[in-house]
Amino acid sequence: MIDSIDQLLFKNMENLVEINLNYNRIVALDPNSLGYKPSLTTFSMSHNGFDFGSHKNIFLSVKSTPNLKRVDLSWNNISRYPNDLNGILTIESVNMGHNVIKAIKVSSVITKKVSDNIDVVINLDSNKISSIQVNSDELPITRNWRTVVTIRNNPIICDCHALSLAKFLQEDHNLDSCIQFEPKEVQCSGSMAGKILNDIKPSDLTCLTNSNCTSNRDCACLSRSYDDSLIVNCSKRGLTDIPELISDESSKYDQIIVHLDGNNLKRSPGEYDGFGNVTELYLQKNKISNVTWLPTSLKVLNLSENALSYINLGVLKLLNESKIGNLSLGSNTWNCDCKASSFAEYLRSHIKQIDSWDIKCNNTDKKLVNLNKKDLCPTNLELTLTLALPILFILLLIAVAATLYFKYKKEILIWLYSNGLFLFLFEEDEIDEDKIYDAFISYSHKDEDFVTDNIISTLESGEQPYKLCIHVRDFIPGELIHTQILNSVKSSRRTIVILSTSFLESVWGKLEFKTAHTEAMLEEELE
């Protein structure tokens, strides 16, 4: 196998058409090894250990091989693409597959070909290319032929360095006539493995910065070339306090985007936390109950799903003076009272920039944006009526209930007592408290001595004597006996019948018994 090429080997071979040095051990060639070969069209040196090394010029160039068409340098140890090939106007294919090239510039691989209708194929398959730079300003726009660059099996990193390639693949379709990648869909590797670069938004292509941007090392600091932004990602870090932004790092960027969502923060960033130049601030899903300050450069603010109940007038003034175009305040515990009237007016005047329909009064479905000052600040009369009407209604119910009670007190008490309801409110005797006598003694006049000596004397004496109604003492002279019997029964809580043979033979005794029985039946019906 050949290890090296002597500089004099190809001397005086101007008519040489093809050189094949495949499957050797050549690791280096002097730039002057070939000399001038105007007839050379094919050069092959695959499966060697060759690398261009530090030589700026290579042995293949428009000066040494002006009519070269095909170059095969695959399966070597080449780490950079040879720019000198661009000047060869006749070139048709360059095979640089299975080398160790790590990065390329598209402008380096487009040749200055003059012949038309024949595509140039540059094979860069199975290298270690992680970055492809495309500068549209350096590429010709109108061509009748294309440079087809194959980049299969390369570890393309889809980060901020892939921005120019992503934009070319997605937007610069007018350049398709001068360059085309194969495959057309570029596969990502690394953290975005499995994704297609053609489908990734340029704004999602970021890189980790080389230095810290906050006082909290748990936060990730990312740069985004798309809009020259610094992205500070402190989401879901369990933070209880605001990390300070390091101004030396943040001052390098046009945009500063801070994610503090999903933490346990109880306050929003203050004036001395280094947030003065922040343009987007995400604070959703925290425990923030008050906002006292806002960055003047703020364009996006998300405070949804916190514990806010009011926005004070000072912050409202800052909001009105700010450039905020997207403000999220939904899913908070908003108080809808007179103090919220200015905030409601702000919502109505900025309805396109705010998630107004998600801003609802605490514990209700009322939307604050729909409430006017009259709804939020009722007058004294309205407030008085609002409080007085329920009270008046309750008093009216009490008055009606009291009237019905006193009118039908007896019936009500009997019904309550008989149904075992509210027994703690009254004693059993209260049911008959309006009656004069404890008992009416109904007996035959033939039994008067017995009744007087044995029953009346006993009941009307003792520690708790009973008040009795008896014929000889309590009947009113001159009134009808029938009426007197009826009144006596009604005026007594009980009727005691002295049942004897004489009583059964007495007409008045039977009348008294019948009257007492009828009265008892009436009371039972009431129960």
From TrEMBL:
The chain crosses the membrane at residues 383-406. One of its GO terms (molecular function) is signaling receptor activity. It comes from the Eukaryota. Belongs to the Toll-like receptor family. GO terms for biological process: signal transduction. GO terms for cellular component: plasma membrane. It is found in: Membrane. It comes from Henosepilachna vigintioctopunctata. Residues 435-527 form the TIR domain. SUPFAM superfamilies: L domain-like, Toll/Interleukin receptor TIR domain. InterPro entries: Cys-rich_flank_reg_C, Leu-rich_rpt, LRR_dom_sf, TIR_dom, Toll_tir_struct_dom_sf. Its main location: membrane. This is TIR domain-containing protein. PROSITE patterns: TIR. Keywords: Leucine-rich repeat, Membrane, Receptor, Signal, Transmembrane, Transmembrane helix. Gene3D superfamilies: Ribonuclease Inhibitor, Toll/interleukin-1 receptor homology (TIR) domain. It is a single-pass membrane protein.
